[in-house]
Amino acid sequence: MPANPYQSIETGTPGRIGWRIHYFDEVGSTQKVAAELAEAGAAHGTVVIAERQSAGRGRMGRAWHSPPGLNLYQTIILRPTTPLAEVPRLSLVAGVAAAEALETVAPGLVALKWPNDLWLKGRKTGGIIAEAVTDPGRGLRCVLLGIGVNVNLTAEQIPDDLRGKATSVRIATGRPCDRIALEAALCNRLDSRYMEVQDHGFAAVRPAWEAYSALTGKRVTVIDASGRIAGTVRGLDAEGALMLEAESGPARILTGEVTVEGAYD
Ligand code: BTN
Hints:
By secondary structure, the chain is of the alpha+beta class. Helices cover 24% and strands 32% of the residues. The chain has a seven-stranded mixed beta sheet, with helices on both faces. A five-stranded antiparallel beta sheet has the order 11-10-9-8-12. Strand 9 and strand 10 form a beta hairpin. The longest helix has 22 residues, at 179-200. The chain is globular, with a radius of gyration of 18 Å.
């Protein structure tokens, strides 16, 4: 393993997010490395960061573009005491924390697109994936919270299929961004928001999520396994579902791909 540039921001307090940061030059996916560490007993809050991923993965079976030396690719091991059903809400909580961290480097430009996209100026700069590891009969063992953020990617480095849709902190602000400082802010905000939810439930962070929502009031189309539905977004409900006013009446969206009318234009 190479020297770890993130060691300076490890908090060293076991059980707090970012207490220990494992750093790799190249991995297939930080999700896989974190799964192995979790299996070996790594504590809550352990972070795995890679400089590049050869098989980075996103939601819905997509690949996550992970070139070296530019961005943040990480998986955080969480060991919640909550039931499996709460895992999707944990990824919304992570979204708020990531938005707050991005706010420190791109003030006023940040938004969240349900469920897990981090936006700067209306384009995707990051995404979150929450994978539950379960024990047959014993429920949730841990959650592997994967966060990818395009930090210093330049416009020329965006692959053709993402052009016009993806961005980075550097593109949105016009300035290079210190990845270590951004990571420190992310661990700090996530630790704080995570504890808030443990103590007071998802309701405690829902207003912050709503304040960052790119979708509220917008006309969207949602595609999921059961088909397609269009409507106007009214907000998030107490479970973290997206509330839609569709032509057929109110709808509650638990999963799916949301497209905003007029986005990316
Ligand atoms: C999405 O589809 O928006 C979620 C993307 C999550 C990507 C991150 S990068 C670090 C971690 N390792 C992976 O393979 N995926 C996640």
